[in-house]
Amino acid sequence: MRVWSAVMGATLWGIGAISAAGQTAVSIVYLRQEVERPPVLSNLDAIPEDEGIAGAEVGLDDNQTTGKFLGQTYELSIINVAPEGDFVAAAEQALSQSQFIVIDAPAAQVLQVADLPQATSAILLNIAAPEVSLRDADCRRNVLHTLPSDDMRADALMQFLQSRRWDELVMITGPHPADLSFAQALRTSARKFGLKLKAEKEWLFDANMRRAASAEVPLFTQEFPRHDVMLIADEVGDFARYIPYNTWEPDVIAGSEGARPVAWSPVMEQWGGVQLQNRFEEHAQRNMRPIDYAAFIAVRALGEAVTRTSSSDPETLRSYLLSDSFELAGFKGQPLSFRSWNGQLRQPIPVVHANAVIATPPLEGFLHPRSDLDTLGLDEPETHCNAFTE
Amino acid sequence: MLRLALFASLLALPAAADEIWVTNEQDDTISVIDIDTLEVVRTIEVGERPRGITFSHDFSVVYVCASDSDTVQVIDPVTGEVLHELPSGEDPEQFALHPDDRHLYIANEDDAIATVVDTQTRTVVAQIDVGIEPEGMAVSPDGTIAITTSETTNMAHWIDTTTHELFANTLVDSRPRDANFSPDGSQLWVSAEIGGTVTAFNVSDQTELAKIHFEIPGVLADKIQPVGFEFTDDGKTVFAALGPSNHIAVINAETFAVEDYILVGRRVWHMAFDADKSQLFTTNGVSGDVTVIDVASRTPIKTIKVGRYPWAAAFRPTE
Question: N or C: which terminal CB in chain A sees fewer CB atoms within 10 Å?
Fold first, then answer.
């Protein structure tokens, strides 16, 4: 069990606050609940300590640059809660400072903040919790989501597999809640796009495993029926890296490994992606990760709304963000906007491998009467979210 | 007999036709198209990721933004040789040559600045802080105003060319790309790639005159992404490239109405006219080709394969 950051209580520090007297001053709080992460077989891709925060900071820079031409100022402060810390107290502190909160926390904590009386008219931006439930029955009127939900990512992958006619699937699932949640999204999505999930196995190897994971995989995968693609649901990054090339049959791997549907990857070069990645790298000395992108785009969405409305009133900004007029350039080749029925940011979800973009769903031919982006994730008629219908 | 024919064809070559020069972003080359034969007759190696291209007024040199080489290359168009390089600032993307034929206004995409370079002394005259990802560049016909658009800040920045200070910043729709003054200098037009619009501004007070929207039957609205555009000499018509919708829009610049859509290659970026503006050459990034449009009939007449990711085009007369 490891805590992935220097131990901090509910510490608070301001970043990049600009003191110029602008007409509109917008203060944003980044509220993070640190979580203990399960051990993984390899630490090759350690999660950076500033994951998410670095993205918000680049978004802040962008907002400040625009703001300086318009007399608008932005500041970002960060409230970090240790794993055993008092998250609710920190959330109350955040809400006493600002009505604009970027939340980097698990789904349960997102709901804790959303349900505080002080948060009723706040704009809370979920950048780290992918659970479908938060966009469904558990949605909240004051929560917008810039991180794609599990089902949006699953739908993007299934559109790609469907377009290649690779329609017979098997799946290996890890034991962690994030793995199970993504696996469930993959199951639902396979059915939605008419693909056949023929068999599933759970990855249950524990410390008693007597051989390297790679040596276990051929036997472990031998009993799968004939298939085109092997799906992996290993969202914590434990075993997935040992599956490719170790399978019994020559296998196409997709999901958490191989062909991965992601909100952001540094291999995205088109649509100004290189420029965004360059700015991010200069700031953080590392590649931009999906949660960084979600935080970046959350801060940018607020900035864009402030720019266009010349207002810092949460209710004005909320209705603009959810309106048809709002469109955000998100370096993904088409305007991004929020779904007015559950607050989810609609966005293309590229399917990538380590070195290149494979495809960028929504793919041609997957049609929707409103926006083809709505072929990814929960659509209006399917959602059980009622909080957005006033 | 055969020898005679060859000889005749060799003789025919020096009576060179006018040319269209196309920068190939991912090939680090320029494709030179012969306007008479509509074929690529030369391929010139240049710096990394060439994008913006423009000729000096007497066509004695051509300037090329070699974005990833962080330089503007000055090339002899006859020999294709790089004569020297200009200090351009980081990642030059597009530029505009001042009517004085001497100062280049360069957008430095990675640096949020615009750089003014004196092409004679080869020095940087000024660097101006602008918004994030400056892209489009234009100088007014009278030379008093320079414009740069910033893709992420979503503005047109108005630069006084005497003081090199910003005197106005105008919000435009998402991800502004190209900027051009009308030939009489009274209007500034700006395209917005993600916004899907082209906006016309009054130059005298920077107010919005009109916003042009596009609609192509059978093409998703999100794919209609205006990028490069050009005025005709009389200022009455604008041809606008609509990116991944694979069409060029023909806009009536007096009524701001869209009159036509012309099908071209994939992800069309920029364009250049020939001498008498009877033909228009569009660069189609994804399909790696150039579409030749007959301007009078507004129909595509030929597709010419060039290098990978053709980006900008410029006209070179040979007379």
Answer: C
* Residue from A276, A334, A336 whose CB has the most chain B CBs within 10 Å, to mutate: A334
Cis peptide leading into residue A362 (ω within 30°) = yes
Size of interface A-B (CB pairs under 8 A): 64
CA distance A71 to A310: 10
What are the structural domain ranges in chain B? 25-316
Show Cβ contacts of residue B289 under 8 Å, excluding neighbours closer than 6 positions. Answer: B265, B303, B304, B305, B306, B310
Average pLDDT of the residues in A89-108 = 97
Cβ contact B155–A69 (<8 Å): yes
Chain B residue at shortest CA distance from A278: B110
The topology under which CATH files domain B25-316 is: Methylamine Dehydrogenase; Chain H (2.130.10)
User: Taking each helix axis from N to C terminus, what angle separates A290-309 and A53-68, rounded to the nearest 10 degrees?
Assistant: 20
pLDDT of residue B209: 97
How far, in Å, CA of B239 to CA of B259, rounded? 10
pLDDT at A14 over 60: no
Q: Looking at the domain covering A2-148+265-350+371-375, what would its CATH class be?
A: alpha beta
Tens-place pLDDT, residues A336-377: 999 999 999 999 999 999 999 999 999 989 999 889 999 999
Q: What is the ipTM of this complex?
A: 0.82
| CATH code reported for the domain at A151-261 | 3.40.50.2300
For the segment B98-121, the average pLDDT, to the nearest whole number, is 94
Inter-chain contact A69–B193, Cβ cutoff 8 Å? no
